[in-house]
Amino acid sequence: MKRREFLAGSAASLIASVIDGKSSVFAKENGTQRNESPQAPSAAGRRQIAMLVYPGFAALDLVGPHQFVAGLMEADVHLVWKNKDAIATGPGNLSILPTATFEECPPDLDLLFVPGGLEGTIAVMRDEKVLSFLSERGARAKYVTSVCTGSLVLGAAGLLRGYRATSHWAFKDLLPLVDAIPAPGRVVEDRNRITGAGVTSGIDFGLTVSARMSGAEAAEMLQLLNEYDPDPPFDAGTPAKAGPQTTSQLRNLLAAGIANTRAAAMAAGKRLRSS
Question: Would you say 78 and 92 are in contact if contact means Cβ atoms under 8 Å apart?
């Protein structure tokens, strides 16, 4: 066996042992504390995770979280779309292959996830088939989640009504249009809803979800395995840090996309309130 294969296998086995419950966390049940592995797979089978993919979504919104949830042992990760044709993400046309259609997606999910984007996101916010799929699966899922403007898609499907949530900073103020409550934070949790802010927050989101489903020690091992130790060359990742000039310039560049997204969110909200 090659050294690289041995190391990869050893790391996977170590993480598996943690996730499978050899390391435990405290949970309260019936007023007492006991050791328990959180969100362990049911005796009937493996965890089922569905991640929506669609033309024009932002690839990094998906790839960051996927790296971590795919590292959860005893989990099947389904990349779900209407068909299994290659999907061009945006920008850059990186191709992603769906692994399951809406009809093939398991009905009972441990986690439902939606990535964001811009024009592609606007399109799915208006797509009744997509929204119906999300609404039906989301009503049954243990966790309903998103990164970036994926939260607006969840909102359009009626899955964030009355929930605290976040989104990309430039679109976050649109959340009330779909009856969600904007909240501060790179990752926002409200009951079984977990939403990440813009794009790269998907890595923090992935670690948060890993901790919820498999415990903090498992998430820490996944962080170490992926050497996630951010030390960016610039410190301009939020409007407050970037300053008003840079923020204003970027808002101007995004103005048309923000306006189109606002229109889609307003239409979605109107449809939700009339249903």
Answer: no
Residue 118 exposed, middle or buried by CB count within 10 Å (0-12, 13-18, 19+) = buried
Task: Give 127-157 pLDDT, tens digit per residue.
Answer: 999 999 999 999 999 999 999 999 999 999 9
Q: Decide if 24 is inside a domain.
A: no
CA distances (Å), origin 241, targets 60, 205, 238, 245: 22, 21, 5, 11
Catalytically annotated residues: 148
Q: In this structure, what CATH number is given to the domain that contains residue 124? A: 3.40.50.880
The rounded distance, in Å, linking the Cα atoms of 134 and 141 is 10
**Cα–Cα distance, 77 to 79 (Å, whole number):** 7
Beta bridge partners of 117: 57
d(CA 139, CA 193): 11
Nearest 5°: CA angle at 218, between 15 and 140? Answer: 110
Residue 15 lies in a domain: no
Query: Residue 274 is inside which H or E element, if any?
Result: helix 244-274
The total of structural domains in the chain comes to 1
The answer to the question of residue 192 being in a domain is yes
pLDDT single digits (tens) 77-106: 999 999 999 999 988 889 999 999 999 999
In angstroms, rounded to a whole number, what is the distance separating the alpha carbons of residues 172 and 181?
Answer: 9
Q: Are 91 and 117 in contact (CB under 8 A)?
A: no
Q: Could you tell me the residue range of the domain that residue 172 belongs to?
A: 44-227+243-274
Contacts of residue 38, Cβ cutoff 8 Å, sequence gap at least 6: 25, 27, 212, 213, 214, 215
CA gap 159, 178 in Å, rounded: 9
